[in-house]
Amino acid sequence: MIARKIVLAILGLLWLVPVYLLLANASKLPAEFGDYGLWEPGNIGALLTNMADAWDRGRLSQGIVSTAIYAVVSPIIAVLIGAAAGFAIVALRLRNGFFWFVVIFASTIFPLQMILMPLFVGYAETGLFNTRVGMILVYTVIATPFSAFVMRNFFTGIAHQVFEAAVMDGASTWRIFWRIYLPMSTSALVAIFILQATFIWNDLLLGLTLTQSSEIRPVITALSALQSTYGGSAMSTVLAGGLLVSLPTVILFLATQRAFSRGLSLGQF
Questions:
Q1: Predicted confidence (pLDDT) at residue 262 exceeds the cutoff of 80
Q2: Which residues are in the ABC transmembrane type-1 domain (predicted)?
């Protein structure tokens, strides 16, 4: 038991090393960056200054608004579509349901890099390039297969007698799905939403390929512009910007963890 705790403590410290290096180097003013060693920390004032500089130079406010829209709307739509697919396959016992499940999930076997060029051409020809609708659409499509995978597996754990009893009571299919199955799968829905929202928030590749203007591009894409040839930002400013844009996902994780812990203690999940 003691050896296990020691190993876990060492692994925890190793995991915190990159976090420390990020904080230590983000808290140094650009003019003084070369005067410090890699492991020497700066100060809070320099960190706040670098964050403000990154916020202004990278126009992160616009990127955060756009990314917040993408990271909320797309996972919600994907979760609902995935839940509906899982409900149809498991509860409604859709004909050849497993085949349709494989068809939905098979889209994940192709690397994203393989479809970037045709995706870019298609978006350019249809007018979806550099639009929020286009970004919401592509994020929804990417998130749906995983949502369907999780919800299909989750619904297999619900006895089919629940569906049959609801039908005997005169409930419609829509009412059974919306009032019985979705409330019973709250934990799975929230878990999928968090995973997909985090993926969308941290996405760089699709933002670089399908957006151009600062009003539409995701925040990670805006942050990457700080490191470009024309950005002209020092490394400490870029690191401070990275720390700044990572805070929402950390806050979301901590808030959700606290809510789940409270729900478990009350027996709600």
A1: no
A2: 64-256
Global pTM reads 0.86
Q: How far apart are the first and last CA of the chain?
A: 30
Q: In Å, how far from its chain's centre is CA 202?
A: 6
The CATH number of whichever domain residue 143 belongs to comes to 1.10.3720.10
pLDDT digits (tens, 9 = 90+) for 114-153: 889 999 999 999 999 999 999 999 999 999 999 999 999 9
**71/136 Cα distance (integer angstroms):** 9
pLDDT at position 56 is 86
* pLDDT at site 147: 94
Q: Long-range pairs for 132-136 at CB < 8 Å and ≥24 separation?
A: 132/66, 132/69, 132/70, 132/216, 134/210, 135/66, 135/70, 135/206, 135/207, 135/210, 135/211, 135/216, 135/218, 136/69, 136/70, 136/73, 136/74, 136/77
Q: Is residue 109 part of a domain?
A: yes
Residues 72, 86: Cα–Cα separation, whole Å: 21
Number of domains in the chain: 1
